[in-house]
Amino acid sequence: MRHPPIFLLILALAFAVSTVWLGQSQGYAAMQVAPEITNETWINSPRLRTTDLKGKVVLVEFWTFGCYNCQNVEPYVKSWHDKFKDHGLVVIAVHSPEFGHERVVKNVRNYAREHGIPYAIAIDNDYKTWNSYQNHYWPAMYLIDKKGIIRYRRIGEGGYDQTEKAIRDLLAEH
Fold first, then answer.
1. Residue 95 pairs with which residues in a beta bridge?
2. Does the N-terminal peptide bond of residue 5 adopt cis geometry, omega within 30 degrees of 0?
3. What local confidence, expressed as pLDDT, does residue 2 receive?
4. 22 vs 25: CA distance, rounded Å
5. Beta-carbon count within 10 A of 150 CB
6. Which residues contact 71 (CB under 8 A, 6 or more apart)?
7. pLDDT lower than 70: segments of the chain
8. Are 64 and 70 in contact (CB under 8 A)?
9. Which of 81, 74, 138 has its CA nearest to residue 112?
10. Which of 135, 152, 170, 174 has a CA between 20 and 30 Å from the CA of residue 84?
């Protein structure tokens, strides 16, 4: 069966775009300096600044408590926090709400307490941090190395072994 050249060109373009998109959305990221987390309201922690966390590996997770997929990722984030907090990992959960009731800080505080979330939560109701990371998804995780560079990105559920390996690799770096 012979395909017209325009069909083949469209097929090649679609393949190229999907390959680039998938390569950028998962796994090891192009190295860029991590944007500062500028939110004023924090739960479980005083305000943390990425510039003050140099020498630590930082996991920045974008989530919202009403998101089913975020709830599925939550046990893994808690586990990594528990496993690696004494080895230099800092977890910052950036709560960027999707719906009105998720904007109420008291609701986020209650959810964190009821679900035993021990790590820092930045309240991002105005999407400042979401936008500075050019994020578009819940959940999304970014790993920042000890020098403040984004080295890994994971969008959505899954890839837990790969994410944990990336955490271990970054913690092992000097």
1. 63, 123
2. no
3. 61
4. 5
5. 21
6. 65
7. 1-26, 29-30
8. yes
9. 74
10. 135
- Provide the pLDDT for residue 22: 41
Token pair in block for residue 60: 């920045």
- Token code pair at residue 37: 């987390």
- Cα 55 from Cα 66, distance rounded (Å): 33
pLDDT of residue 143: 98
- C-alpha span between 55 and 6 (Å, rounded): 52
Distance CA 54, CA 147 (A): 5
The two tokens of residue 12 are 């090649």
Q: Which amino acid is at 37?
A: I
Place of tokens 């775009």: 17
Q: What is the pLDDT of residues 3-52, one digit of tens each?
A: 556 654 454 444 444 333 444 456 776 689 999 999 999 999 999 998 89
Q: Any idea which residue has 């000890």 for tokens?
A: 146
pTM of the predicted model as reported, rounded to 2 decimal places: 0.85
DSSP state of 34: P
Dihedral angle of Cα 86, 154, 97, 50, to the nearest 10 degrees: 50
Domains of the chain: 28-172 (3.40.30.10)
